[in-house]
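User: Just a sanity check before I run the rest of the batch. Below are the structure tokens for the first item. I only need the designed sequence back.
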């Protein structure tokens, strides 16, 4: 058996300011650091010994992973950083206040940009675009580790993880609109050697 733990980074400074972040490289807020410590405690209680860690090229995910590994006392774990796990690129929305964008474009349009599968914000990515890079990375790097019996820890972002969860949970486009992955809450999957999911637990 092998375990896959997916952790969305803790709250970032721009999460706290209600701004679209995307690929802008902002750090964790103090609350985000606390969320990462709580996520580590939840994983500690599961008693999983990880063999490999993956994260994005963005600071907030890397900071979260550093806290997780330190608290888990697994700081020597091999870590691979890759932009395939980056958050959606929000294009022209990056840095802008979400409430102001709702006032300008309407809440329905902003919700489509944030949660739909195939509607892109101006000059940005939709979830389908994010999945087009995150899922090949999952199948090419993470799944082989799991098939080999290795347990894997991933610290990434709301939309790159939504893409992976969408595939693992076999969600359709309408279902994924409602899928919200909270900051600092581990999603833990247990796999057999054939990559069949034996169990899933959300450590909230």
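Assistant: Here's the designed sequence for the first item:
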């Amino acid at each position: 058996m092998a375990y896959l733990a997916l952790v969305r980074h803790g709250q970032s400074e721009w999460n706290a300011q209600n701004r679209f972040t995307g690929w802008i490289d902002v750090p964790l807020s103090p609350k985000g650091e606390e969320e990462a410590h709580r996520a580590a405690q939840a994983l500690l209680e599961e008693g999983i010994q990880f063999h490999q860690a993956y994260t994005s090229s963005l600071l907030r995910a890397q900071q979260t992973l550093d806290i997780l590994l330190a608290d888990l006392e697994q700081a020597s774990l091999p870590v691979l950083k890759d932009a395939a796990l980056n958050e959606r690129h929000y294009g022209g929305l990056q840095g802008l206040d979400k409430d102001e964008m709702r006032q300008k474009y309407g809440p329905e349009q902003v919700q489509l940009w944030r949660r739909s599968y195939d509607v892109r914000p101006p000059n940005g990515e939709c979830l389908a675009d994010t999945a087009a890079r995150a899922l090949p990375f999952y199948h090419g790097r993470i799944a082989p580790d799991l098939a080999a019996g290795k347990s894997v820890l991933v610290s990434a972002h709301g939309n790159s993880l939504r893409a992976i969860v969408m595939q693992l949970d076999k969600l359709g486009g309408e279902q994924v609109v409602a899928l919200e992955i909270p900051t600092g809450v581990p999603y833990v999957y247990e796999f057999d050697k054939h990559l069949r999911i034996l169990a899933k637990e959300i450590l909230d």
